[in-house]
Amino acid sequence: MNILTDPSDIRKAAERVAGNAPVAEGGVHKTWFRGSKGSRPPKALQTMPETVVLDYVLKGWEPAAPCIDETTKVTAFGSCFATYISDWLASRHYNVLTRDEGSNAYVVSCGEGMVNSFVIRQQFEWAFEGKSFDAPLWHGYKAEEFGYDEDVRLETLRLFNETDVFILTLGLSEVWYDEPTGGVFWRTLPKDKYDPERHKFRVSTVEENRDNLREIYRLIRTHRPDARIILTLSPIPLIATFRDESCISANSVSKAVLRVAIDEVMREFKHEGYLFYWPSYEIVADIFNFPFKEDRRHLHRPVQDFILMTFERVWCKRAPDDHEYLRQWLRAKAVSGQLNDRFDGALRTRNLDRLRHMLGRARISNFKVTEATAKALILRYVEEEERRQRSRSVAAE
Q1: Are 305 and 328 in contact (CB under 8 A)?
Q2: Which of 82, 197, 327, 333 could bridge across to 78 with cysteines, CB 3.0–4.6 Å?
């Protein structure tokens, strides 16, 4: 890589980016108007520093300041990615209401099974407004029927009425529904309950999902006007599709429908200051090379933890420091294919001798363009960890 040091070269590079590049004596080549705002995706080299998500993904999505502390009451449900967020925050001693094992609310016992926007809307309509449904739409993990029990509704209402931050994760736009009533099931439905005359499958539209999100927003703003709402799109792909197309193509459509619906609602209500988006989907899709395990459905744990640590740094008042954040980033890069995977074990155990030995190798990155940056990051981590260990030793004497 050529590093520009001469002021004249720097100015010329800036002119090329701005669209005004001299091409001949006295002549200026004009490109298309690029506006006063906008951003560009990172080059390969720019995906190596630990700040890449903060610099290139979170623009436009961050709150003005972190607002979650140990007293903030958080409710998180939706797809399985909501479980990751709940577990992470609970393990860091934040107040996650949907981790209350004594609660009989369905958003607690089956919250990560509510994978589409229809069923999330149903929970808010049922709890806040007592809406009833004309068919048995809700079933648990063991195919047991979850009825519309008033005690459960009141417990759900209690949770919602106490919530300061709602984290709602959308998973897929493919739905099964009850044709006579139009009601949508949580997922599919138990095999022994399936009736081909009334139970149908379809791909929901952007407009339907947008309207669901609008109504969820309206209900929360009506009944919990000071609560913040964070929408996320699960990066976990479909395990299967009921469409007569490839699952890979179906997954692309499923995520695209939801992402467009989220974006339209964000553009409509973001300015009010209560609705936010967390780009976990983009982090997985665009920042890591091979973020999934061999099943291509479950994230490598260091990748998952890095996303959640980033969430904590952005949203929580008490967050990991830069050193721990760098360590988690390097672990995520190691398991996802950009660094030699042996670095993960050495970083996990803080084996500094091992890390220094590995730094002496000719290549530590699987991509030549990021080699020098990768070595610099690991060396920075090692030197800071050595300093901290020395400080702890002195303090213990």
Answers
A1: yes
A2: 82
Unique residue bearing structure tokens 């069923």: 119
Three-state secondary structure along 42-88?
Answer: CCCHHHCCCCHHHHHCCCCCCCCCCCECCCCEEEEEECCHHHHHHHH
Dump the DSSP string for 140-205.
-TTS-B----HHHHHHHHHHHHH-SEEEEEE--SEEEEETTT-PBPSSS--GGG--TTTEEEEEPP
Q: Which of 213, 236, 109 is nearest to 166 (CA)?
A: 213
**CA 84, 286, 211, 311 torsion-angle sign:** positive
Nearest CA to 42 out of 370, 302, 341 is that of 370
Amino acid code (one letter) for 269: F
Q: Where are the alpha helices (DSSP H) in 182-315?
A: 206-223, 247-269, 280-287, 301-315
**pLDDT (0 to 100) of residue 136:** 86
Fold (CATH) for 51-318: Rossmann fold (3.40.50)
Task: Say how far residue 58 (Cα) sits from the centre of its chain.
Answer: 11
Residue 29: the pLDDT is: 58
User: pTM of this prediction?
Assistant: 0.90
In the chain, where the domains are located? 1-36, 51-318, 321-397
Dist CA 174 CA 265 (whole Å) = 20
Quote the CA–CA distance of 77 and 86 in Å, as a whole number.
Answer: 8
Please name every residue paired with 28 in a beta bridge, in sequence order, or none if there are none: 22
Q: What is the mean pLDDT of the chain?
A: 91
